Sequence to fold (261 residues):
Amino acid sequence: MSSGLIDDFTAATGHPLVRFADAVEALLDDAASANAWTMTPTELRAVLPRLSRAGSRLTEVTLRVLAEADRQSIGDDVGATNTPAWFAHVTGQPVPAAHAQVKLAATLDQDRHQATRDALAAGRLNPTQATVVLDAVEALPAELVDPALAADAEAHLVSLGDLDAATRLDPKALRIAGRKILEVLAPAIAEAHEAKVLEAEERHAAATATFTMRPDGHGSMLGKFKIPLLHGQILAKHLDALAAPKHQCAIAKPGVEPVET
Fold:
């Protein structure tokens, strides 16, 4: 920030974040007249990561303000249905995208997610990485994971994506790490969680199983079914045995060739 802008920012009245927005707009206006083609390769390599990080830091400020806007329901006074609807209108973005940003802002605003918020504010995580970390932590089974373990998981994922680290994970790799975080930090809990998930899947499969068959009028049966995995494997084994060439030969009438499978 130039010395003049610093003086203006310091001397101005009003909320610091309003003054910050004024200063950012002034700096962007100043940058608009600068030609990138005059930059050297060294300058380009140096400035691009800095600008990307600055964008991440600005996103954190925006989300911080957006969380407070949602808390105060600022769309009510202008007839908006809710904060996402108002935010979509004033920013010209689709309502689903605005909903996602408001949700991210509210999640990031929680005290338990300070590690991610601080990393985004420092530019050590980009917004996509931050979203991945939060999604992974929010998906942890609350009945098995206490707040301390959840905090450890979040800190570990932040460290894996940290842009200051010599090696760091991109969002895709970070998402994979997030799915396996319990296996790394608490294998016993991960095993118990997997067992509960499998049990729930089996109950659902049994409760929603269906099996119907009807003749097609041409010597065959038509069927439709949805059955649990184990039952399906047993059925497939029996059907494979019935369709096997040896079985076909054994039941074939003289002079009739077995059906090829």
Summary: The CA atoms of residues 139 and 179 lie 9 Å apart. The mean pLDDT is 88.
